Every structure is written in structure tokens, then in C-alpha cells.
Known about the structure:
Residues 211-236, 325-378 are annotated as: Disordered. The protein is α/β, with parallel strands linked by helices. Helix content is 31%, strand content 18%.
Amino acid sequence: MHRTAGEPDAHYTPTDIEMEYFAANPKPGDLDRHSTLARTFIEHHVEHKRRVALVTSGGTTVPLENQTVRFIDNFSAGTRGATSAEYFLENGYAVIFLHRQFSLLPYSRHYSHSTNCFLDYMTGTEDGPVVVQNDYQQQMASVLRRYRKAKKENTLLLLPFVTVNEYLWNLRELAMLMHPLGANALFYLAAAVSDFFVPAERMVEHKIQSGEEFAQPNGDVPSEEEQRGRKPAAHMDGKSLMIDLDPVPKFLKLLVDGWAPQAMIISFKLETDPNLLASKAKGALKKYAHHLVIGNLLNTRKWEVLFVSADGAEKWIRVPANRRAKSVTGRTDNGRTGGKDDREPALEIESLIVPEVASQHSHMIEHGDPRRPNGSQA
Ligand code: PMT
């Protein structure tokens, strides 16, 4: 009987689903290189008894063709992940930053926006040296100092992914490599991971032809993929492009039970409807048995988040109204018009989130895992 990856089936255990997924979907070409880098990094920090946070960041793509011209993507720029990574480093963690390639990176994020380009901070004559303008010296020096410290102390490892498949392979590999860290490992899953994908067996090789002259006559000549079984996930039907995606198998429970049983695991829940946020975050916590789910709404995520802990406690963390950053449109994030007013320097919400997370992590290390009542380790 054919079973689609991720489909619920009473006879399939999470381990079966894992084995099936990783057998059917190709290992990324750079996984072995990532694995070597991560192993060395983790060994170093195990030796120094340092905590290590795996921060995931940015969106995942869902390619529609093997030789990819078209793909499905999402909104995430990686702000949450890149900003949080900096605060983890400041709080004494080493950070493995598993990020979407070309999304924001810790430290360089301050100057990589098109609206905040580093070139606007520089000055110099045609032949003379290029220097940072006086107004920005202090701020840039501070970012540079922190960046150099992370490099010198070897506390930041950057590992990129692009597709959802690459993300899943990397997450599993890193989770297993982090085993020796025991409770000193922390997962901070800020990436916006696609819930749907095209499994390898239903991916077309070449660019899907949109022009009528090249489009396959409706059903006349089955493609190679069609001959092998189901229709390709993305195919033309007359003039329409049909996309029929499979659900991404839910590996989040496996992260707790199988891959990283001693680590602290924090996942995020994104919603757009405020009425759903708390219940969806609680539902995710119950379903995946993580230590903490951080709920956030698309439109307010930069200044408020909801912590839902394993004991069911709910707590909002908010940036005070006069500390919210102005957006590039000149309006403040809370809708007030920008300009000189009673505002104090902007505060990043991650500067409030990360110390709270670190403190819960300390508590877990000192008092044992609250999800295991007798404090026993897995
Ligand atoms: O990048 P920004 O623009 O700053 O935006 C940040 C953010 C809004 C993307 C971030 O704060 C956030 O909420 N990320 C999670 C989005 C979400 O709702 O994910 P989810 O419900 O599909 O998944 C739940 C959790 O499991 C997430 O932590 C996700 O990273 C993780 N996950 C999901 C599926 C999967 N296959 N693997 C995962 O690790």
C-alpha cells in the first residue's frame, strides 16, 4: 500500500517515518562538511564545559523542479534568529547558527539591509582612505568588537541551508552530534520551516514549461515521473500550474525523544490571528513535549511574544512602547508617527527573550528536567 510521507498511520512509529523520509529524500551535498565542522566545534565546547545553542533561522524553500528554477518560499528574513544568536553569545553560549543562506547573520545584520547599507556609514575622498563617519564610529566599533570576540573565541559556527530537505537533514545531524553536550545543549528553533514539500519521487527534473506549445497535452504522454507512480507534484493542467504538496513529516517529537533527549528545546509558534495564538502554542507544547513554546504574531512579533512553559504557565514579554524601533516607513511599529519625541533608544525584544530562556535553561541544568518528574535524565 502506498503511503505518503507524513501521513498519519497507526502502524507507523515516528522512527519509521524518520527512516522513510531520510531514505527517500537526498542527503545534501555539504552535509558531511557541516558535520565535520560541527563535530569539532562541539568537542571544543564540551571540553570547555560551555553551553551550546543551536539557533535555526530564516525560511526554507520548497523547490518545484530538481534543476530548480521555481520554488515556494516564505516571509522570514531571519531577524529573530540572527538577533537572538548575538544575545546568546553575550549570555555566554556558543552558537551553531543554522540559517537560510543569504538571510540575516549575527553582527553583519546591522548593516546588510538595503535600507541600512554599510556604504551609507562610510566616508572618504577619491584617493584617500575610506573610514567610518564620526556619527557611526561608536556603534560600529561595538558591533565589530563583539564580532571579533566571537571569532577569536570560536563561539559562532555558521551553517547555511536553502531547502526544507536540507534543513531537516542538518537538524537531525546536528541534534545527534550535540548528544555529548547533555543538558548543556539548547535548541532555539526560530526558523520558519515549510509545512509542505515536494518529495524527491514526485519532483520533475527540468523546468516546468508554461507556454502552451511546450505544455504536455493533458494526460496524453505521461512523464517519467507519472510512469513511476503518482503525478509530479507540480505539473501543467491545460494553462494552469497545479501544485500538490505532501506534508512535511513532523520530526519535532523525535527531537525530544530520540535525537536530543537531554537538551532544552524551545520552539516558536507563528500565527496571524490573536485569538488563536495561546491555544496553538499550548497545543504545540503538549504535542511535541518541548520545554518552552514562544508564540508570536506576524504583525507584532518585533515587540511582543508569549512564553508558554512546560508547567502550563503563560507569560507575555513586551518591549515598552517608547522603546520600540521605528520602521523604515517612518512610522513606529505600534502605529505612532516617528520623529523626535519622548522615545528612548530602541530595545530589541530578543534582548529580553534570550536572558529569560537562559535563566530557564540554568534552572533545568541545576534542578533537572521538569518534564521528567523524578529529575532523571533520558
Ligand atoms: O525571521 P523573522 O522575520 O524575524 O521572523 C521570525 C519568525 C516569526 C519566523 C519566528 O519568530 C517564528 O515564529 N518561527 C516559527 C514559525 C512557525 O510557526 O513555525 P511552525 O509552526 O511551522 O513550526 C513550529 C516550530 O517547529 C518552529 O519552532 C519551527 O522552527 C520548528 N519546526 C517546524 C517544522 C519542522 N519540520 N521542523 C522544525 O524545526
